[in-house]
Amino acid sequence: MDNSFALRISDLISRLESIRSNLYPDDWDSDPLYNVIRELRQIAADAQTAKQV
User: Which of 9, 5, 10, 1 is nearest to 52 (CA)?
Assistant: First the structure.
């Protein structure tokens, strides 16, 4: 994964986590941001795996 792309995804995840923490309780997992964050983490992991191959 391109380093700037990885940083952008990481920054986006951090921003979403910050927003989410202000909207929902810590153990809440039934909000749309939870799913978006999970998908972004998966995209980042997939891209990292593809880079190593």
Answer: 1
State whether the Cα torsion 49-20-30-32 is positive or negative. Answer: negative
The closest alpha carbon to 9, from 52, 41, 51, belongs to: 41
Q: What residue numbers bound the domain in which 16 lies?
A: 3-52
Rounded distance between C-alpha atoms, residue 47 and residue 40, angstroms = 11
CB atoms within 10 A of CB 24: 14
pTM, to two decimals: 0.78
- Alpha-carbon span 53 to 26, nearest angstrom: 36
Joined together, the tokens standing for residue 45 give: 């992991």
Domains identified in the chain, total number: 1
Give the pLDDT confidence of 26-37 residue by residue, as tens digits. Answer: 888 888 999 999
